[in-house]
Amino acid sequence: GRKYNTMLSRTSVCLVAAASKPAKQQKKVVASSGTTTFKRHLLPKAAYDLRRLRAKATLKVAPTDTRIIEYPRERLGLHYALNIALNKHHKLTPTNDAFRNLHTRHLLMHARGSVDKARSIEYAATGVENHQVFWVSPQLNNNMQPPSGQQQLSDAQFRKLGRMMADQIGESASVFVQDSAVGSHRLAEVRTRTITNDANVSLLSKHLLVPTVATRVDPVFWPFEITVMIAPELKLSNQDLADLGLKSNTFTVFNPERGLALIGGTNASAHIRAAIESLAASRTSNWSVPSVTLPSAHVVAAGANAGLVFDPAGILSHPKNADLVSGFNGAIWNDYGTFRMWGAVSHADTAVPRTLGDLVEKSGKTAVVTQSVKNQPIQYSHPAAVVFLVRDSTGVLPGVGRVAANVAGQLLASGYNGTSNVPLFAKNGVAEPQGTTAKLFAGLVEANQTPVFVVNTRRRDGSELTAEEVRAVVNAALDGTLAKSKGVADMTLKMAVINQVPGVKTSLDASKGFKDKAEYAAAAKKLADSLGITNA
């Protein structure tokens, strides 16, 4: 109960009121000067709370138009640490919701496009054509030199463009952040942050990038290495384009020294993937344990053996050979072994069964399907073999040939795909001292005594290896059969030519279709010069 002291006339009496008793119950009170009985009706307990009475008398009700802000008020879309990280590291202030590593179902709620019964989403690609690529020269680190022959922007132009993109993304209805990694294992991961205002792009990033334990760290302190900022709906005025040195609203600008890429005017997966490839490759070649990032290589497994197969022409995409591939569209190789580069595979087969969150990106009559890779190893041993698959339009390359480590590095750098030369380590190039990636690759081949083979599936007379024969050659490379074969030295193309492979009936003789040996020799000399292997 509560005690109240009341001064009575001539007598001091201690009244004890029990709060648990009814308000009007009678109470016998004993006075200090004698025994006297008083009959008193007790008031409700609130009446005795003098402090509450005084507070009630002075209470002022706020006007109805006054804004009352509750703090803290964090919720999904309002995360203080994320907002601080975006402002501190990227000069981006969200005016509305901002999400980090949002789950697939929620991203589908924000995404644009049509959702089918399997809960995959189909949408139109934008900015596929007229895409321009620019690089920014380093201010301090000379190891981050842009690839030769690339268009360049100044550091001041890059900073201005970055501020404009940050403002445009920050003022959008939602900002989506994905913190993950390129590389399937912590021994070969490039921690990557993508920032966009497009849920489709964020869902693509969620599929492509590999989850990493490091994302449990507060976003302010998360140790990301590269950042890709994507604004698919960015529209710059003609004056802004001129001031920034851009030629269109569809662009990718690389600043490898800062580990940052700005992508505007496109949501195309090919452009986004290529940007991440170039930034990641620029980082891995400068690690304390140098690693080679190989976007054009598949990790291929045959039984207990695993190897790397470069397949720029998409020969292994045939359904009869698809099961060979364990890690599609990219690998990372270093002293610790081989690793998958991506957490997803992109292909053009729309008939493949799809599942929750799969992406179908349409551009005209073509489509690109992106699906997460599940239940695959995250680390492999050093490759049992390296295979360059080529569909040579000239028919000059031998059917099967073994090359030395230095020639293998040159083939990687030249990137001959049968019709043109595109470096196999990154579509947009890598920021590095010239030749670094090729030397690292050749060094790994030599250190691990990895056999390297060139396989040309097409002859000059038009004959081609079947899907089954391609599979037989790859298996023979992985199980060591080709390494045991004795080849005939070709001094022009710098390889040992192998003319017999178990399971291959199609002729592997490269001279078929040429008039005579002199004509073939001249064509081989021309090809060797274009590949840069004449003096290798």
Large-scale geometry: elongated
The assigned structural class equals: alpha/beta
**Order of strands across the biggest sheet?**
3-8-9-10-12-11-6-7
**Fraction in helix:** 10-25%
- The total strand number stands at 26
Radius of gyration: 35 Å
Strand content: 15-25%
Kindly report the oligomeric state of this protein: single chain
Mean pLDDT, all residues: 85
Main beta-sheet annotation: 8 strands, mixed
The DSSP helix count reads 12
How far is it from the N-terminal to the C-terminal residue, by CA? 99 Å
Low-confidence stretches: 1-41
Q: In brief, what are we looking at here?
A:
It contains 12 helices and 26 strands. The chain is of the alpha/beta class and 536 residues long.
